[in-house]
């Protein structure tokens, strides 16, 4: 999967959080992935221009 710099940064943040208690919480995961999808959607628009 090709990621924009911003999308990769957000994914890296989540990966670093895996050892934290937050990632066991459903609300945190739902909120994170909802926000990440927004970042992905904006980067998809970016890649369609190439």
From TrEMBL:
Gene3D superfamilies: Yeast DNA topoisomerase - domain 1 (1.10.10.41). It holds the Pfam family Topoisom_I_N. GO terms for biological process: chromosome segregation; DNA replication; DNA topological change. One of its GO terms (cellular component) is nucleolus. Residues 1-41 form the DNA topoisomerase I DNA binding eukaryotic-type domain. GO terms for molecular function: DNA binding; DNA topoisomerase type I (single strand cut, ATP-independent) activity. InterPro entries: DNA_topo_DNA_db_N_dom1, TopoI_DNA-bd_euk, TopoI_DNA-bd_euk_N_sf, Topoisomerase_IB. PANTHER family: DNA TOPOISOMERASE 1 (PTHR10290:SF3), DNA TOPOISOMERASE I (PTHR10290). This is DNA topoisomerase I DNA binding eukaryotic-type domain-containing protein. It comes from Dreissena polymorpha (Zebra mussel).
């Amino acid at each position: 999967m090709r990621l924009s710099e911003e999308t990769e940064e957000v994914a890296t943040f989540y990966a670093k959080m895996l050892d934290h208690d937050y990632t066991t919480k459903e609300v945190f995961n739902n909120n994170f992935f909802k926000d990440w999808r927004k970042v992905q959607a904006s980067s998809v628009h970016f890649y369609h221009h190439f």
